[in-house]
Design a protein that fits this description.
Largest sheet: none
Radius of gyration: 23 Å
Number of strands: 0
Shape: globular
Strand content: under 5%
Number of helices: 24
Low-confidence stretches: 1-31, 281-286
Structural class: mainly alpha
Distance between the termini: 20 Å
Helix content: 55-70%
Length: about 525
């Protein structure tokens, strides 16, 4: 059975790998990639996701120039000369305050997604990004390190809001067969943004003593250009139907997303699938009673609901585990590994950029992977192979000075780790919350997952250098253990979600660790 023939009704069984999904209804035809679906995906990817990744990768190359400017500006403003240690501490604050902003932005994502809507939450991301770019561009002109810090806070808030709301927005726009393919657009954007930030901040472009402020603010061009179609972008039909109770507007958005040739049967099927996520309503309630019932779920109500404990653990474990899997540590360490095979310092940095480009290249194929292969298969393969290659990297780096060809083996281990990371651990955590939670608790769950991601990112940033100095090659072992534990968790408790309606997934994980998500559900 082809994916085009799958129904989003009740699913009987979803085995491992690239198996077929069995449905209880007759096959149907439905629109695939339509104009507004693609426009929403491209706009949010270039307008918010790429700028998020950009602000992660842009500060590395011009760091010394920015630190020198900060030291001189602090002296001119306050008459204080920072020691080398104090300057390093201040720079750590400049870098890490972005991650703290990501945590705070994630926390606010749940409230904004329900109060303002998915679409206007995206607009809020754009506004924060523009104000951040203004701070970066003019901090040097007005000689203000405070403005630099404020800019980092603002783009951090935007980053947290982006990762907690944009994948949810895109997943709610897509029909069930394209839910994963569209959901990974945010992951692709963040990955691509890191590479773009590294390129723009090279000394050959804007990474110089005179132009670093242009490197920091360059991303604003993408924000301005790709927010042009914002006014015409659709709002999430699920948000309109369930949260706002605007049924007619939801139907209009379904028709727009379905394309010009959409049929009434398809619209009815989409409405029925949305009703399946509206579990707060009883089918015997009259319309007025349904309208009076609260649709939004507070963060506390989601945290204390025992039926949501397991899916919340899965979402937070995947998002946090994505950062604790060692991807940033591998990129940090890879420069010294490339130097060990005889590359100069400059060539090693370009080789490291090439590894980032490999990460991006693989990311381009993730929409196809999400559409054709089951989530469990990809997640388990990714986590287990990442654990294997991290352990292999630990072994070869430890003995790299004793065995000549281990330098080349370490490069192979790095490249294969990046390859397997990007087919599962890279993209799946961004949107898995949209497939494990119904509309009501979804914003809170996505916010908690995003908090776990940015919080673990902050933890790695603060501890990795110290651990590297103390442990050497064994610094990769904690990341290896994380991948092993994540593999075990997913093996026993992650249900298959590809091609399945959410109302058939939620019961599989509603009994905490007593759940049996691999047992076929009727």
């Amino acid at each position: 059975m082809d994916n085009n023939d799958q129904s989003e009704s009740i699913i009987l069984y979803a085995p491992e790998a690239n198996a077929e999904i069995v449905s209880t209804q007759q096959p149907r035809t439905e629109p695939r990639w339509t104009f507004w679906l693609l426009t929403a995906g491209i706009s949010t990817t270039f307008g918010a996701a790429i700028p998020t990744g950009y602000n992660i990768g842009v500060t590395n190359a011009p760091a010394n120039f920015i630190k020198e400017w900060c030291n001189q500006t602090i002296f001119d403003t306050y008459g204080t000369v920072l020691s080398e240690a104090a300057l390093d501490t201040f720079w750590s604050a400049v870098v890490s305050i972005f991650l703290i902003g990501g945590v705070i932005g994630s926390l606010g994502g749940a409230w904004l997604a329900d109060r303002l809507g998915r679409k206007r939450s995206y607009l809020t991301c754009g506004i924060l990004l523009v104000w951040g770019a203004i701070c970066f561009q003019f901090c040097r002109a007005v000689e203000s390190v405070e403005l630099l810090l404020l800019g980092r806070v603002l783009v951090g808030l935007a980053a947290g809001l982006t990762t907690s709301t944009v994948p949810m927005y895109l997943s709610e726009l897509a029909p069930v067969e394209l839910r994963g393919a569209l959901g990974v657009f945010c992951s692709m954007g963040v990955t691509g943004g890191v590479v773009v930030g590294q390129i723009i901040s090279l000394e050959e472009i804007f990474g110089t003593d005179e132009l670093w402020q242009f490197a920091l603010s360059f991303y604003v061009l993408l924000v301005i250009i790709f927010f042009v179609p914002y006014h015409w972008l659709p709002e999430s039909p699920k948000y309109l139907f369930v949260i706002k109770q605007k049924r007619d507007e939801a139907i209009n958005e379904i028709k727009r997303l379905g394309g010009t040739n959409v049929k009434d049967g398809y619209v009815r099927q989409q409405i029925e699938s949305i009703r399946g996520e509206d579990t707060l309503n009883n089918i015997n309630d009259d319309e007025e009673t349904q309208r009076r019932k609260p649709k939004q779920r507070s963060l506390w109500s989601v945290l204390t609901d025992p039926t949501l404990t397991l899916p919340l653990i899965l979402v937070c474990a995947l998002q946090g585990g994505q950062q604790l899997s060692g991807i940033n540590a591998v990129f940090f360490y890879s420069v010294s590994i490339f130097e060990s095979v005889g590359l100069s310092s400059t060539d090693a940095k370009f080789a490291n950029l090439g590894a980032g480009c490999l990460n991006l290249f693989v990311a381009f194929f993730t929409p196809v992977l999400m559409e054709k292969f089951n989530r469990r298969f990809l997640a388990l393969l990714s986590c287990s192979m990442c654990a294997f290659f991290l352990f292999a990297l630990t072994f070869v780096v430890y003995f790299i000075n004793h065995v000549g060809w281990f330098s080349y083996a370490s490069i192979i281990a790095i490249l294969l780790y990046i390859l397997f990371y990007q087919i599962g651990l890279g993209p799946i955590p961004y949107f898995i919350g949209s497939e494990l939670f119904e509309v009501g608790p979804r914003p809170a769950a996505m916010a908690m997952g995003s908090i776990a991601s940015w919080g673990c990112n902050f933890l790695v940033a603060m501890l990795f250098t110290a651990l590297q100095s103390a442990w050497g090659a064994f610094v990769f072992l904690p990341f290896t253990v994380t991948c092993v534990l994540l593999t075990l968790l997913l093996k026993f408790y992650l249900p298959e979600t590809r091609g399945r309606h959410i109302s058939s997934i939620v019961p599989l994980v509603s009994n905490g660790f007593r759940s049996k998500p691999l047992v076929p559900w009727t």
